[in-house]
Every structure is written in C-alpha cells, then in structure tokens.
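Re: the 57-residue chain
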Amino acid sequence: MDKNRPLPPGTAFDPYRQQDFERRKALGFPRPLYKSTIPTPEFTKEQQAERRRMAGW
C-alpha cells in the first residue's frame, strides 16, 4: 500500500482514516508513488485543494 495515499474505502479502515489523514498532513502530503483511480472518502474538491495548497503540487 502506498503510504502517501488515503486509506482505501471499507469499514475495516474507518477507525484509522482520520489518524492517517493527520499523519499525511503532518508530512506535507507527499506525492503518491503511483497513479490510481480508486475513489476514497477523502476525494472531495475541498480536500484535494487543501492537499495541493499544502503540498505545493
């Protein structure tokens, strides 16, 4: 699993989703290692804009 991407959808990951987001936020949202088309709960326009603004990419 690419640690630079949000956790995949599924109830198994729900308890860890916010913690994972905060971890990636603290790292400055590093670029993903590979392209993906898997939709995740974090794939909203607002969150994408925040990531691009903070990461500079």
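The mean pLDDT is 84.
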